[in-house]
Write a structure and sequence with these properties.
Length: 235
Amino acid sequence: MSEGEPGADVRRDANRTMSKLAIGVLASGSGTNLQSIIDAVEAGRVPAEIRVVLCNRPGARALGRAKAHGVPCELVDHKTFPSRELFDERVVAVLQERGVELVCLAGFDRLVSPPFVAAFPNRILNIHPALLPSFPGLHGQRQALEYGVRIAGCTVHFVDQKTDHGPIVIQAAVAVLDDDTTESLTARILAEEHRIYPEAIRLYAEGRLRIEGRHVRIVDPPAGNGSLANPTPRC
Ligand code: GRF
């Protein structure tokens, strides 16, 4: 399945929508997005099973969060690999060994290589702390603040071969206040991230996402907000 294929259902086998989606979460840092996913799965709001939390930094808070919830986790320290390709090869192997169907990048601070993306076509989601296509790359919140936008936000999107570029699933907007600092804006954006990331995973798990070129169509979108800008979450 490739980007541009009309109506491609990202969970093609309808029967699989009845079973729990096997997800792998990749994290590098504090892991608050990971926590929002764990909480939503534990509460039964997302029909998924976290098969593995893969972390590339020893001592990252994300690892402790996984352990505290009995979620399988694995440390794959990128510094112990001679190249990005070999690191990604190991990451892909771990995800495949665990039977992961959907990969969720949640504060993962490594760029994913083309072979990694090719191993999981239209099966990698990322959360970005800005309203893409504005402010891709690092420090999206700071970029937005320095640019002087009135509305910032966050984006859940499919990962393709270009950084912060793939088809957009959900965005949430956050007003920028006159006295905002990078820290205060980051905190309000993060709260929205924690709402929309589990929601996007739920929609995927329920087989309700169709990729049509750059557009992600949502089958039976949540009531009252067809555009899914600041969707009323069910999670
Ligand atoms: C989030 O702002 C996410 O959008 C970005 O990195 C941050 C990770 O935070 N990609 P956390 O580790 O989930 O707390």
